[in-house]
Amino acid sequence: MIHAEDFLRPASKRGFTLWTGVPCSYLTPFINSVIQNPELSYIGAASEGEAVGIATGSAMVGRKAVIICQNSGLGNTVNPLTSLNHPFRAPVLLITTHRGEPGVPDEPQHELMGEITEQLLDTMRIPHETFPQDPADCDAALERAEASMRATGLPFALVMKKGSVKDFPLAAQPRRTTRYAHEEGRLQGKFTTEPAQWAPRLDYIRAVKELLGGHSALVATTGKIGRELFTAGHGPGQLYIVGSMGCASAIGLGMHEGGSGTRHVAVLDGDGAALMKLGALATIGHYAPKHFLHIILDNEAHESTGAQPTVSSTVDFAMAASACGYAQAWRTDRLDDFRELVKKARDLSGPCLIHAKVGISTDAKLGRPTVTPKEVKEQFTQWWTGK
Questions:
Q1: pLDDT of residue 56
Q2: Which residues share a beta bridge with 355?
Q3: How far are the Cα atoms of 40, 43, 55, 80, 270 from residue 155, in angstroms, in the given order?
Q4: Most exposed: 75, 117, 277, 289, by fewest CB within 10 Å?
Q5: What is Dmax (Cα atoms) for the chain?
Q6: Model pTM?
Q7: DSSP label at 84?
């Protein structure tokens, strides 16, 4: 058994200073120590998959990150770990607990995952070992983890057994509160036109690139939004997310926080993707990234798979963002108004959200990025860090 600080001290020296995840009782003393360490940043995620996005975004801008979660939540990480971190070769450190470990009595819901935790990591091709239980082993475990991540470009997992970390109480924490934008007159705009009049999404994306390109990091969600951003013109400050549907906003938050808010981040999201990880609105609203613009390009359809309708025709994303603590939220279905809102948001203290109604694309010949995800990540990191 170790004290949390026995691991946190060498981890911090190695640059692992941003932590994100969802709690587990095995992790309680560990998380309490992270939260109360002034040299570390902790982002409590709404889901484990969201935490993967946050950590990966941070790693992409040069700040090493750690994901912490219960193994019951490991299933929530499968999609981003396999369809984001693997193709982008974006390594992050994962600490997962081992609830339901064979031979250790536990609750029935942990039985199956306890049996297959290590097999699941093997299936995802994520190297792993047992979390250290002796203070003298912590730095060596971190060295092996980093060596693996350097060699493979893939995440590395430490599996924490019950009783690995000694108790550490959580002192009273300041409670964050917010004034809701809809109560302050900062929720504005309405939809006034019919779907047939909505301008093509590519026109909106071109407007974003014209107004923010080079100045802001542009993070485009999976599917045709990323493809259209590439079609509008490739730039090193653009990241086209493949797979990991719903994680674009979490990746953008991780970039902002990992980069200490030094650059403006604009996320180009879709209605289906935003609905998949709606909890990210709450995380973003709570941690309040100041230089952050979240744009939801809503065509009320899963366009990439044949334009099956989403449920967004009855969802008010701007109101939801306002209720989650965004500083400003707008609705618009007019391209000229959208352009003015992007200009305004660029200079406001965020987070800000624009819910824009856009037309369904009819371009059957729409291309795809001709650079690989790994190349896109490397170009993006170099652009952000200047290295």
A1: 98
A2: 296, 331
A3: 20, 19, 11, 11, 27
A4: 75
A5: 66
A6: 0.95
A7: I
* H or E element that contains 340: helix 335-346
Q: Which domains does the chain have, with CATH numbers?
A: 4-160 (3.40.50.970), 181-385 (3.40.50.970)
First to last CA, the chain: 40
Pairing of strands 308-309, 187-188: unpaired
Run means of pLDDT, 10 residues per run, the chain, 387 residues: 93 96 91 92 96 97 96 95 96 96 91 94 97 95 97 96 88 76 82 93 96 93 93 94 94 94 93 96 96 96 85 95 94 96 92 96 79 95 90
Judge contact between 120 and 129, C-beta under 8 A: no
The helix/strand count (H/E) of the chain reads as: 16, 15
CB 156 within 8 A of CB 297: no
How does DSSP assign 151-213, residue by residue?
Answer: HHSS-EEEEEPTT-B---PPPP-PPP----HHHHT-EE----S-GGGPPBHHHHHHHHHHHHB
**What is the pLDDT, as a whole number, of residue 210?**
95
How many Å apart are CA 297 and CA 277, to the nearest integer? 15
Give a three-class secondary structure readout of 205-252: HHHHHHHHECCEEEEECCCHHHHHHHHCCCCCCEEECCCCCCCHHHHH
CA distances 164 to 29, 134, 160, 218, Å, are: 10, 9, 7, 41
Q: Which tokens go with 19?
A: 């932590």
Q: Under DSSP, is residue 42 helix (H, G, I), strand (E, B) or coil? A: strand
Please name the residue ranges forming H helices in 259-316: 271-276, 279-287
